[in-house]
User: What shape does this take?
Amino acid sequence: MSTVKLDITKEHCPMTFVKTKIALSKLQKGDILEVLLVEGEPLQNVPKSSREQGYKVLEVSHVEGQVHKVLIEK
Amino acid sequence: MGITELNILTEPKDPKKLSIISFSGDFDKLVATFTLATGAAAVGYEVNIFFTFWGLDAIKQKQGRSFVGTGSLPKLFGFFMGGLRSAPVSRLNFCGISPKIFRYLMRKKNVATLEELVEAAKALEVNMYACEMAMHILGLQKSDFIHEVRDVLGVATFLDISEGGRTLFI
Assistant: This one.
């Protein structure tokens, strides 16, 4: 199992979702994707859509300012 | 026809399927098409795009102006219509300057460009189809399109494919 980091704090719709989805598709089952994202649409919907697609959201935590960290297990 | 005229043609039964009829070859409407397509695919939707008429320009292998097509009139049309890189904006095109300005602004503001959205659609395995009738008029072959175009369809097959989801006409 490995952890891959993805920073989408500077991305805008739809690339926030697109980059998360593509990163997840490259992982092996059991690997973890650590996503840095900002409040608003990315924070509301990246964890939600990941859960809906069958991935396990392990943690959503505040980092600093508007930046949050989401851990997603494939 | 403006983006405000995007029409929802059907009520969804299966909310996880989005089908888009890409009729316009305009830059701004193609951005709308590929933004919706990639966003939907990324959050788990099955996405189908049916390219017809001017929309076929978006999926040509040759992205600039070239004499694509069989026959002199289709070749001439093919040249003036061009491909993805030649797409005009639907308003204030200013002889093709505006798409260049939009591309500059999109890069500067870190928003995905049209070309990046198309690449994302390929990576997310969005299903792309070409309209058989429009291809026939314009003298285009499947080999004139990017490899990711899955098939050449007529209306009946597209209706089968899109059944049960949302359908948009752009």
